[in-house]
Write a structure and sequence with these properties.
This protein is mainly α and 202 residues long. It has eight helices and two strands. The radius of gyration is 20 Å and the shape is globular. The chain starts with a helix and ends in a 20-residue tail after the last helix. The protein binds 2-acetamido-2-deoxy-beta-D-glucopyranose (2 copies). The site of one 2-acetamido-2-deoxy-beta-D-glucopyranose (NAG) has 2 residues, from loops. It comes from Caenorhabditis tropicalis.
């Protein structure tokens, strides 16, 4: 029995298929999802993605930073066995539609750029909380865009989170100063002069 178990254990240690290790790191013993594997929103609804992309192992946890959940098969293959060979169409569709469910956030346009060569802060030490902080966001959009997923903003960012939830605030009388300062991306105010001007990148 012990002998059988020891035969099974090595199989259990490669749950992120070796055919597609994207957005994963080796933590010393296992391949686990990186900090930017699931750090975005699905483009289609979570409801859809969670039904369309089901892990082969029904007991697998959902893909999250630091775990080694089964990447749902349809994310990267048309096969039905684990592992199955890569299919580029399946993978492209997953990146475009359900990147969070598939652990592909790091492959989306938001992460597809380089951090500055000499950033003002050490991008490796930037936390998720910093990426959300109004005090940090402009600096991080300019210097560490690939760490925070700010690549497609061209250095122009909403300083606060949530502007995009209600774009009508862009035209609300009395909020002009607020949106000029804080909702520049959402309200298209990137060229409005502020204390922290947008430095266009790339
Ligand atoms: C590596 O990841 C595995 C799977 O999530 C976990 O069980 C293990 O404790 C981790 N090892 C280290 C050194 O963090
Ligand atoms: C930055 O992160 C590295 C590795 O996680 C750590 O060793 C180092 O102490 C951190 N530096 C600061 C200034 O927090």
């Amino acid at each position: 029995m012990l002998f059988l178990l020891s035969l099974l254990i090595p199989l259990a240690t490669t749950r992120i298929t070796p055919y597609d290790l994207s957005c994963s790191i080796h933590n010393g013993t296992h391949n686990v999802y990186s900090s930017t594997a699931a750090s975005c929103q699905n483009v289609l609804s979570d409801e859809y993605c969670n039904i369309a992309y089901i892990p082969a192992d029904p007991y697998s946890p959902v893909v999250a930073e630091g775990n080694d959940a089964d990447r749902p098969l349809l994310c990267y293959t048309l096969g039905t066995a684990t592992p199955s060979p890569l299919n580029q169409d399946a993978r492209s569709a997953a990146i475009a539609n359900c990147p969070k469910t598939c652990g592909y956030c790091c492959l989306t346009n938001a992460y597809k750029c380089q951090n500055l060569l000499y950033p003002r802060v050490n991008c490796k030490n930037v936390s998720k909380a910093m990426c959300l902080s109004p005090l940090w966001r402009q600096i991080l959009a300019e210097d560490c865009p690939a760490t925070c997923g700010f690549c497609d903003l061209n250095g122009c960012i909403d300083l606060v989170v949530g502007c995009e939830n209600d774009p009508s605030i862009c035209h609300t009388v009395g909020l002009e100063d607020f949106v000029n300062q804080n909702c520049r991306m959402t309200c298209n105010r990137c060229s409005v002069g502020t204390q922290q001007p947008c430095r266009g990148r790339r």
